[in-house]
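Team,

Forwarding the record for the chain on the shared tracking sheet. I've put the sequence and predicted structure together so nobody has to dig through attachments.
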Amino acid sequence: MIGGHAASFHMFRGSLITEMVRLGHEVLAAAGDMDADIERRIRALGARPISVELYRTGVNPWADAASMWGLYRLMCRERPDLVLAYTIKPSIYGMLAARLAGIGPRFAMITGLGNGLGVGGSIRHRLVARVVRSLCRIAMIGCRGILFQNLDDRNYFVDARLVGPSVPTHVVDGSGIDVEQFKPTALPTTPVFLMVARLLVEKGVHQYVEAARQLRGRHPSATWKLVGWTDGIGNAIKAEELTGWIDEGVIEYMGRLDDVRSAIASCSVFVLPSYYPEGLPRACLEAMAMGRAVITTDLPGCRETVIEGVNGKLVQPRSVQSLACAMEAFIHDSALASRMGDASRTLAVKRFDVRRVNSQMLKAMGLTG
């Protein structure tokens, strides 16, 4: 397995790795930002951690060549029976390296288009996207299968001819969520909204804060909380902006949390106004499993988590007014969060249980036994 972020192995792929090991497979987990703690966590899952030179973002020919060379050497040394890479850059360079090394079954999992393949933006962004698309088209040749987390991304790859007609494609229900670990808790007695995300502009942080600013004067009993972090990658929220919001009192900032369950338990409605090219946002699944109504954008990935009017509300991307209106509906109707939260839990158990999703992925890769 090749990942763009080493911590994602235990955070998002832990149960998949555990199931692979249970089925008798030896699992090697390769990423570029390993540290001693992450290595320990990966070993606890039954896998072997491997540090490789893999740069997560940007299109730097020298850095990308180094990534390719490192992955190629890894393939030649270990000779894996199968390679699974996830997120865009590891998928591109992992598939290319495995192909050059003569590794047969190769699978890529596209967990969202991200900024690399996202449409629109500046001239530079469009040029970078063109390069990434060209590399992606070459890398996917001969793959045994491509896994997607939503139908829109799968259609984008097919329509843009990034994947040929001979390569099987599969749509799975995200990364799944452990519904035994994330269990429902009682709702607070007053309206509490929560957003959990990387603090990127494209995640809709500005819209969330501005909607909270508009509503807090009319509804002093309501609270808006924010959990998030920056990792120096992408269009991050500036530290002075965040400090200003905290000082203003418009949000309650909870910092970065390794375990978000306490934060979710403190809220009545989960909010993700993202217009980032998501795969299927795990934060929404965590909130759903804990019985929270969800407000998110009517965009690929995000809209997979909400049945409009049943377990939440879909809002227009970048629209403060649409978001504020959706949140105010929960303030006016105290029973709405409970009713929709129950529906979220039902949907999480029925569709997004990690055991069901793991079964989808393992079947697609022929690893079920």
